[in-house]
Amino acid sequence: MTPNPFLGVTLHAAGGLAAGSFYLPFKQVRNWAWESYWLVGGVCSWIIAPWILASLTTPDLLAVLRQTPPKTLAASYALGMAWGVGGLTFGLSMRYLGMSLGYALSLGFCAAFGTVIPPTVRGELPALIQRGSGLLTLGGVLVCLAGIAACGRAGVAKERELSAEAKRATIKEFNFVKGVWVAFFAGVMSACMAFAIAAGKPIADLAVAHGAAPLWQNTAVFVVILAGGFTTNFLWCVYLNARNHTGGDYLKTADTPILSNYLFSAAAGVTWYLQFMFYGMGTTQMGKYDFSSWTIHMAFIIVFSNLWGLMLKEWKGASRRTHRLVFVGILVLIASTLVVGGGNYLAAYGK
Question: How confident is the model at residue 249 (pLDDT cuts 50, 70, 90)?
Fold first, then answer.
């Protein structure tokens, strides 16, 4: 399949929109503990949606998984569990920092680790810096990190400018110090997704061999990776249900709109999964420097999450200077995706 980096960037933008928006339905859940709606959404995003899409796009999915070497399945699943820890703490960062700052800090760390480490481990970095396309792609990664830093700096400025009451008016559990530590840990662990996809490459190859279109080859991989992520989140949420005595949430009807809670949680879960559907498709289009997909994905997530944060008035009361810094960060992030896409485009022509 001939790479089409700009189509890849477009697909990553769609994935970023999904990832930057998935937490919105959770805001409509009423009288459920965080662990309850997170688990319901997780069942949809980590189990139901991946299996449905993989079954529709991969002929004889079960045969593909049976033929996959056990070592590949184990590595993909284990890295998925590690990524699941990141996903779990990522959800906590939303609670403590809100959508704008939570996304910016968590994904800033995630972009840095998930983009640079894989080509370094594979020994590809020296070759990258010897080609114009490689230098342009790496330059785009640096531009992306600069944009993330701008958004993060704006978040810090906002934290300093607003009173505790103003911050809690839009983010009920706002806690900057706790949120930063959670975001750091979430970003580092979430970067394991990039390694998990690389480890699952034999699954993708088998899917294509069984007749899956190259554009959809990663849907079978996500079945295994997200099963690992589900394991981690399931164990933690059930533990919290037991500790906090919130296991009754799933059946509680008194003063609880239980049907809408399930529907909104499911909507959040499916929206969350769509990010990786589009991410998996976009990666197939990026060509030789497909490692840069992670940077582009993170950039678009931060762009859309900050736009949602602005629309939801999470930045209300911040100074004009802080607002300008947010917008600059968003523009820099958008520019970085074009630079990275350009580098991948040149690589497709051997430059």
Answer: very high
Count of domains in the chain?
A: 1
Among 151, 192, 174, residue whose Cα is nearest residue 93: 174
| Predicted structure pTM score | 0.74
Both tokens of 54, joined, read 């993989």
Token pair recorded at residue 289: 């420097």
Full domain range(s) for residue 98:
5-348
Q: Are 228 and 29 in contact (CB under 8 A)?
A: no
CA-nearest of 294, 332, 249 to 107 is 294
**pLDDT attached to residue 230:** 94
C-alpha span between 51 and 344 (Å, rounded) = 31
pLDDT tens-digit readout, 199-215: 999 999 999 999 999 88
What three-state secondary structure class fits 190? Answer: helix
CA distance 120 to 140: 17
Buried b vs exposed e over 92-108: b needs ≥16 C-beta within 10 Å? bbbbbbbbbbbbbbbbb
